[in-house]
Amino acid sequence: MMRYWDGHWNTWGMGAGGWLLMLIFWAAIVGVVVWLIAGNIRRRGSPADASALEVLKQRYARGEIDQQEFERKKRDLTQ
Fold it and tell me: Quick one: how far is CA 52 from the chain centroid?
């Protein structure tokens, strides 16, 4: 649907300003959705509520520390 407006053909009756505002609106909507999804993924990736003892157990299970270091650090944490 095209209209003749002030000597120019406009689509849907919107000038360049209307299309620019629509583009900014949809860019903002997409930006907010991406920001929310990225924030949700970031929160899931980090164990915020893991205790120090749980982290120590995970490090021992992955082989990052040996048994002596695990026992020593476990003793320090439980005292």
Answer: 25
Co-location of 20 and 40 in the same domain? yes
pLDDT (tens digit per residue) in 22-38? 889 999 999 999 999 88
Q: What is the DSSP letter of 49?
A: T
Q: Which domain holds residue 74?
A: 48-79
- Positions in the chain whose pLDDT score sits under 70: 1-16, 43-50
- 37 and 56 belong to one structural domain: no
Predicted TM-score of the model (pTM): 0.41
Q: CA-CA distances (angstroms) from residue 14 to 21, 28, 29, 42, 71?
A: 10, 20, 20, 40, 72
Domain count, the chain: 2
